[in-house]
Amino acid sequence: MARRKFEAIGSTADIAFLLLCYFLMTTTMGEQTGLQRRLPPIPDEKTAQDQKVNRRNIIIVRINSADRLFAGNEAMDISLLKEKIKLFLSNPADDPSLPEKEYKEIEGLNHKVLVSKGVISLQNDRGTSYQAYIAVQNELVKAVNELRDEFSMREFGGKKFFALSEAEQDIVKKAVPQNISEAEPKDTGKR
Amino acid sequence: MSKFGSSSNKKEVPQASSNSLSDIVFMLLFFFMVTTQMRETENKVKVVMPQASEVAKLERKDLSVVINIGSPTKQYQALFGTDARIQLNDAFRELPDIRDFIAAERDAMSEAEQSLMTVNLRVDQDVRMGIVSDVKQELRRCSALRIMYAARRPAQ
After folding, report:
1. How close, in Å, is residue A171 to chain B by CA atoms?
2. pLDDT tens-digit readout, A53-66
3. ipTM given for this complex
4. Which fold has domain B61-149?
5. Which of A139, A181, B36, B136 could form a disulfide with A27 if both were Cys (CB 3.0 to 4.6 A apart)?
6. Does residue A26 lie within any of the structural domains?
7. Which residues from B are below 8 Å from A145, CB to CB?
């Protein structure tokens, strides 16, 4: 009796081994990571007129077909882009050529905070390489993330953005919005 | 040797070890079942994802739809050339096919989750933006607005 019981356990181990091998073969361990974005909906002809934004609130970041970067009409190296975007979004000296800021009440915070109205308009050419495009996207996200870190350090007692709770993160997201607009593709220049 | 020679011990020792073996293997099995995911469809296009330091993890893998863009791998180059192509599921597709593909994937989801659908754009780093812009425009037309540019974290 005892002997038969042990034999049965021996075969469960074999079956489990087979299953294990099967899962090892058919599955991958990699996780999906990337930069998440929301595309703008296709505008109606009516609403297209309303989307006029004050010129000072927009910075145009353009990558041409030779992967050269222009930010606000000047050629620029990608390593300098982050500082430029941070300056643009925070506008510490209230420069009239940089975006407006307005006091906004944010649910969950007991005082009003200055929220920038700045919008980053990212334009690319059909011939731009994807690698350069993602590199620029990454710098833009990095600039916003650093501003969010600074804001949460100020407001939530030295904690960084990722250390906050979900509700607190939502507050920071409202205070430092990530306004990146991916413009309609343009046919400038040849491939 | 004398330890194992006695007939009384001979019965006990090996059987006890096989007892726990199945537990260990089952634990390994569960570990792999939990941490891994099913391998995706066969890649017909070469995709080397660009690096980005600010990547975020996709929370709901089951709600993501993958679109691969890249140049065909070696065995398909004779047929399809080396120009960047779109791969949906298991086959090369053209731009207008995206609409049906998105609609089919959307139907497969429950109604509450349809709005959370994320299109995961796995694009090779050497691809030109032209085809990516076309795909983005097509996605906007299908109102699949949540997208993710797949990228990998640079090795530190």
Report:
1. 19
2. 677 788 888 888 88
3. 0.72
4. Nucleotidyltransferase; domain 5 (3.30.420)
5. B36
6. no
7. 54
